[in-house]
User: What shape does this take?
Amino acid sequence: MSTEAEPRLVEQWRAIQSAYLKTSNALDRELSARHGIGLNEFETLDLLAEHTSEKCRMKDLTADSPMTQSALSKIVDRLEKGGYVRRAACVDDRRSLFVELTDAGAKLHETAAVTHRELLAANLPG
Assistant: This one.
């Protein structure tokens, strides 16, 4: 790599990082203030809402999320304690768990998604 390209790469990386941090911090603050959940909880609800079937295998949710399995499991625990998701054992495979939105989780997602999308539009370049 030429040394002339390096400053551009560093500048590009810093612009991406700055946009990400600014946007994720704004999202986390506003989702917490308006809806009582953090960005990671919202992203988990959002992924569950996108699944075509009501129930989602935990391993599929983990595959769709950038979070580690351990971190995602803790988030699902918090959402379950809040009454926003429920877990159910898979009848066909006892090692598998399903996760699904509850009515309260679907309602929370619906209202929080408005805040999320507004902040994405306001904070992301383009």
Observations:
- The chain has one domain: 5-123.
- The chain has a mean pLDDT of 90.
